[in-house]
Amino acid sequence: MNEQEKLKDIVSEFGDPFSESSFCKSLNVSEIIDSFEEEKEVSCAGRLVSKREHGKSGFAHIMDYTGKLQIYAQSKLPGEGFKLFKELDIGDIIGVKGKLFKTRTGELTIMAEELTLLSKTLRPLPEKWHGLKDVETRYRQRYLDLISNPGVREVFIKRSLIISLIRSFFRELSYMEVETPMLQPLAGGAAGRPFVTHHNVTGSDVYLRIAPELYLKRLLVGGFEKVFEINRSFRNEGVSTRHNPEFTMLEAYCAYQNYEYMMKVCEDLFSFLAKEVNSSLVFEYQGKRLDFTPPWQRISFAGLFEKEFGIKAEDSQEIMVEKISRKLKLQKELSRSQILNITEELIERNYPQDKPTFIVDFFTWTSPLAKTKKDNPYLVERFELFIAGLEVANAYSELNNPVEQRRRFERQMETEEELPKKIDEDFVLSLEHGMPPAAGLGIGIDRLVMLLLNQPSIRDVILFPLLKSLSR
């Protein structure tokens, strides 16, 4: 019997299995288990994940997002309750009311007194529901992954917890959460190829933001001193275990502080999260032991590149690119993002990976929005945070000189092929009204969740990662 025929039989026998618009749950599964009392009346709902009949009785398990619970049905169920029980399929969503008891084996069970079919499945669950393994199917049909794999559900429950903890951390520091535009007239605030679309009413192209930075700094000009945003950003680039074109970032800005302050914020935030999520500052990530105990090690970007490529901080960008290209036998048209990818490889090759690492002393030309060091105009006050080979955070003392910012933008337009050839005049104008000295921090939430939850791919911590369309 196919699905449609089965549905017709159910409708004929029991009525429309999609007619119920609500069901009064007294408790979810975990609450029922935690508050167990013999003969306690409860009502619960969930997906049927197992069923076995024994003549005039039967056992089944229902599952909600908190766990799994056994139900026991007998032929004396009122009305056609037991007849309905016998017709249920694995995957059906049901509501059950009854009293709690424990079986002879000690399993907590609901003695069903009322059974309601809330939604009829028309397709079987994968592999008898326990163990969806195909990676492509897991990502493409995440709902089946969540039904089949309890560990996956736990990852996303904990991801939600992590984001809540981040919010509470910054609120404790008196930061105000704000929202800035996702559609922007210019793509700025980071290096990356933007998505472009067209707004019909204004007749202009707009960009999905690659970062919220320039708008958040406008708020510093406006007088807010501590702001943060947990935002969606977009880059029209490749897909890998570390990259998804749509991703979640935290950006935070604090007036009258510098990048050293943001290092302390990172150490405190990440240590706080590790203790809350993993109950320890020491935990495992993909076979590596990670220790989040502060203080974290610091490595000079300029020193690393001088040792590896013979580069001096005062060398021009062209000379630096030539030296790197010559040694690595690459094309000379290296972008800033490629330089930073090389950095990841050098760190992984030359330094221990068991502790988070701050990379400092970046060249000025790689950092168009960062303030230069007072004692060395060729370097900026900036750090990138690497953990287990992943770049997780980026921060700097913000450039607030409008004249220098314009010069940096002009230089950036000459060298960055990915960016539109236009200066964000409105942002420069805002700086001309005066922005206080400030520190800014960006954290890749998806990568941070990967680390804290020991997940190998960014697609394992994003509910619906971007995938290639199936050909039809």
So what's the overall shape?
elongated
What integer is the average pLDDT? 91
CATH level 1 class label of the largest domain: Alpha Beta
Give me the number of helical elements: 14
Q: CATH superfamily membership of the largest domain, which one?
A: Bira Bifunctional Protein, Domain 2
Structural class, from secondary structure content?
Answer: alpha+beta
Outline the low-pLDDT stretches: none
CATH architecture of the largest domain: 2-Layer Sandwich
Helix content: 25-40%
Radius of gyration: 28 Å
**Count of individual domains:** 2
Quote the CATH topology of the largest domain: BirA Bifunctional Protein, domain 2
Q: Could you please describe the fold and organization of this structure?
A:
This protein has 472 residues and is an alpha+beta fold. It folds into two domains: 3-124, OB fold (Dihydrolipoamide Acetyltransferase, E2P) (Beta Barrel), CATH 2.40.50.140; 147-460, Bira Bifunctional Protein, Domain 2 (BirA Bifunctional Protein, domain 2, 2-Layer Sandwich). The chain is 33% helix and 28% strand. It is built from 14 helices and 19 strands. The chain has helices at residues 3-14, 29-34, 81-87, 135-140, 142-148, 150-172, 213-221, 259-278, 301-309, 317-328, 336-350, 402-415, 425-432, 445-452; strands at 41-54, 57-64, 67-74, 93-102, 108-119, 176-177, 183-184, 196-199, 204-208, 226-234, 246-255, 282-285, 288-291, 297-300, 357-363, 372-373, 376-387, 390-397, 438-444. β8 and β9 (204-208) form a beta hairpin. α6 packs across α8. The two termini are 27 Å apart.
